[in-house]
Amino acid sequence: MSNPLLVFNDKGIYCEQARVYLDPWQPVDHAIISHGHADHSRWGHKKYITHHSNVPIIKHRLGEIVVTGKEWNETFTINGVKFSLHPAGHIIGSSQIRVEYKGEVWVFTGDYKMEDDGVAVPYESVKCHSFITECTFGLPAFKWTPQDQVMTDVNNWWQQNREDGRTSILFGYSLGKAQRLLKYLDPSIGKIYTHGAIENMTEVLRPQLSMPETIRITRDTKKEELKGSMVLAPPSAHGTPWIRKMVPYVTASASGWMTFRGARRRRAIDKGFVLSDHCDWQGLLQAIEGTGCEKVICTHGYTDIFSRFLREKGYDARTEETQYEGEIGELEAKSEIEKDPEPVDKITSL
């Protein structure tokens, strides 16, 4: 094919033959959306296509939109181009987007991870000629501990804090990370409270996922009720009056960035749990090898380092600029905290 099947322009990743964009960052007529995070699903498109389990998520976040839900591996054709969605394992409803035209196959991953977390449908390897991959954690230093061990550490931390008479505040993005944490928290330790932004999203996802009972923090929540309990909050709640009224408390963050102690210090976090919804270094390499691809396009993350390594391994690898952020930014947390209808500084002190 003389022209690439997918190209990057100022609006997003474009399939000219189908006149469709993948995860566009500017308003377009037709958009296929990989998942519900704010940097991949934006408001303003005329028509959306996504996996059906992502439909309630983006409707909650974007309001009344024209959206069509698809099944896994369901082929749909637009202007002769075949599309299908395949599990990405990132969060609930996250998809890789397969694009085929005249025998050429491209796969756009969106965001993805290899570990089966028991929440998202596990990642599925899809054969292709060209593979568009994120590389948020595209450095050899990133190597994830198995989830079971991480969650054991989280629950042990909570238990110790409870014995010390302190509230445990655990930060995680309101869509995806918070529900993953919640599913594996041990409710026998104590009550689990949630920031309003996390509770709003958890209510949307409860029909799709079994999770322990939670209590929304409101203006009527008393400080003494929280002592010894677990509080799930978005990262941008840290340092606000909402947090300060929970004294005595201990904070922790669940993120791949907690690999580096410096990241924890910069964010003034007491404890870091290395838990990411993205691939680590080996996961990225395993995913690429599994596709059998020849060409790799690296987006958002350590793109230059990772693409250079791939070229040394014999791949035709290059980088492209996008407006996706992965876990690098806090746009998701910021946008969700602004949706909390409860004031953030109204916890009643006794």
UniProtKB/TrEMBL annotation:
Gene source species: Gillisia mitskevichiae
Gene3D superfamilies according to UniProt: Ribonuclease Z/Hydroxyacylglutathione hydrolase-like
Top-level taxon in the UniProt lineage: Bacteria
GO molecular function, one term: RNA endonuclease activity
Comp. bias (Basic and acidic residues): 331-350
Protein name stated in the entry: Putative mRNA 3-end processing factor
Residue span of region Disordered: 321-350
